[in-house]
Every structure is written in C-alpha cells, then in structure tokens.
Amino acid sequence: MSMPSTWLITGASRGIGLELTKQLLASPDAVVFATCRSPQSATPLLALGDSVSTNGTLHVVRMDVTDEISIVSAKDEVAGILQGRGLDYLVNNAGVAPQDDRTTTLNINDLLSTFLANVAGPALVMKTFIPLIEQGNRQVIANVSSALASIGTDFGREHTSYSISKYGLNMLTYKLAKERPDLTPFLVDPGWVKTDMGGSNAVLEAHESVAGIIQVVKNVTTKDAGQFIDYTGQKVPW
Ligand SMILES: NC(=O)c1ccc[n+]([C@@H]2O[C@H](COP(=O)([O-])OP(=O)(O)OC[C@H]3O[C@@H](n4cnc5c(N)ncnc54)[C@H](OP(=O)(O)O)[C@@H]3O)[C@@H](O)[C@H]2O)c1
C-alpha cells in the first residue's frame, strides 16, 4: 500500500462531487472528507460508506460554503480527525447556477447569491483550510470552474450571472496562484456533464468527466498554479 492521500471535496452530496468521492474511494489509499450542506439527507453519499466499491476511508462532514461558521467548524472537525496530518488535495466543487439569464434582464438577487456560493464560498474555504493544506504532502487546490467563464471560448450572451461568478473564481484562483504558487491553486473545467446542473442534454456522463478530473488534479505541479485546464488536460483560454 502506498502513502495515503487526503482529499477534501465540497458539494459532495450529488453530481460531480459525489462521483469524485466515489471514484477516489475505490483506492484503499484515499482518505476523503466529503463535505455537504445536509449530511442527514445525503443518502447516496452516506451509502458510499457501505458500498462494495469503497476501499478507502470516507468521512462525511457538514459544510455550507456560504456560511463561515460552518466552514470553520468543518475545518476543526477535519483537523481533529487528521491529528497533525495535512490535507493533500482541496477540491472546491460546490456551486450553483441560476436560471439562464441575460445582462439586460438579470435578477440581481440571482447574481448575488450565485457570486456568494461560487466565489465567496471558495474564497472562505481556501482561507480557512490553507493551514491544513500547508501540512499536506501534496498541497493542491483545484477550483472547479467552467468554460462559460472563458471569454476566449466566447459562449455568447447566455448565463450571465453564472459566467460572471466563475470568472470571479478564475480571478480569485489567479490571485492565490500569485500569492501562494506552492499550493498549486488552479482551475479545472469538467466539461458539460449530465448532472442536476448540467441537465440531460449534456455530452458527458459524470463518471467520464470525473475520471479525467482526478487524473488532472493528481498530476498537476506547481508550474500549473493559476492555469485553467479541462478534464482532458487541455488548457482552456482565459
Ligand atoms: N454539470 C456541468 O455541466 C458543469 C459544467 C461546468 C462546471 N460545473 C461546475 O461543477 C461543479 C459541480 O457541479 P454539478 O454539475 O455537480 O452540480 P449539481 O449537480 O447541481 O451539484 C451541486 C453541488 O454543490 C452543492 N452546493 C451548492 N451550494 C452549496 C453550498 N452553499 N454549500 C455546500 N454545497 C453546496 C450541492 O449541494 P446540495 O445537494 O446541498 O444542494 C451539490 O452537492 C459546480 O461548481 C459547477 O459550477 C458543472
């Protein structure tokens, strides 16, 4: 058995976060802190604890990324379990997307609540968990962004609030990459994935996207700090 790796995933109750947790736990070396807003109702996540495909160690921890008290309390719980060991990988996956909106008609409350979850949330999570990541062997922060945040990709006028929020996440990641490149903060684009957010017309199954995301996250080096990389390992234009 190789050295255990420790992971913290936000938004692990469903979608990409749940699939990340499931695939990571296939390895007996993985210790996964799967965080979610409501552990008591996260039935598929809790079921991973008893699944035959789970060989690693699962800890389900309550954390709402828009609530600083909940983030600090989650950090204390995780630190208590780690007992001086660090976190190797933090994956800021939790996110929301309001109804498709346009700049001329957007609802300001949708814009603000999306910004809170998709930008302020990861900012607070990173700030709070950096001391644990500093103690990790690997020290990687993966922020789950979207090609919709890429002006270079030019997706057009749709999804204004969501695109602004992910663009904000990109800038936040760039800023941390300049301040702390040693923590390899970078952006990963999962592609268009069949989840509650991505919808049934999406082109990728969650397991396909997540298999790629895990390879990308495991293989980044400090040279990738501040980079925007998709689930296949290709650079995404800013
Ligand atoms: N699906 C796609 O095509 C696609 C494409 C590009 C980027 N992404 C990004 O990939 C990430 C995961 O998306 P997904 O498709 O898996 O979406 P999803 O199926 O809608 O799942 C979103 C997850 O985020 C959690 N979440 C939302 N707000 C939260 C909060 N305040 N605190 C903690 N957890 C919260 C949800 O928890 P609850 O169950 O408690 O609501 C859920 O676990 C997001 O950042 C999304 O923007 C997705």
UniProtKB/TrEMBL annotation:
SUPFAM superfamilies associated with the record: NAD(P)-binding Rossmann-fold domains
Pfam families, per database record: adh_short
Gene3D superfamilies reported in the protein's UniProt record: NAD(P)-binding Rossmann-like Domain
UniProt KW keywords: NADP
Keyword set includes NADP: yes
Gene Ontology cellular-component terms listed: cytoplasm
Matches recorded under InterPro entries: Fungal_SecMetab_SDRs (IPR051468), NAD(P)-bd_dom_sf (IPR036291), Sc_DH/Rdtase_CS (IPR020904), SDR_fam (IPR002347)
UniProt GO molecular function: oxidoreductase activity
PANTHER family reported for this sequence: CHAIN OXIDOREDUCTASE (CSGA), PUTATIVE (AFU_ORTHOLOGUE AFUA_4G00910)-RELATED (PTHR43544:SF36), SHORT-CHAIN DEHYDROGENASE/REDUCTASE (PTHR43544)
Record family assignment: Belongs to the short-chain dehydrogenases/reductases (SDR) family.
Name this protein carries in UniProt: C-factor
Organism name: Suillus luteus UH-Slu-Lm8-n1
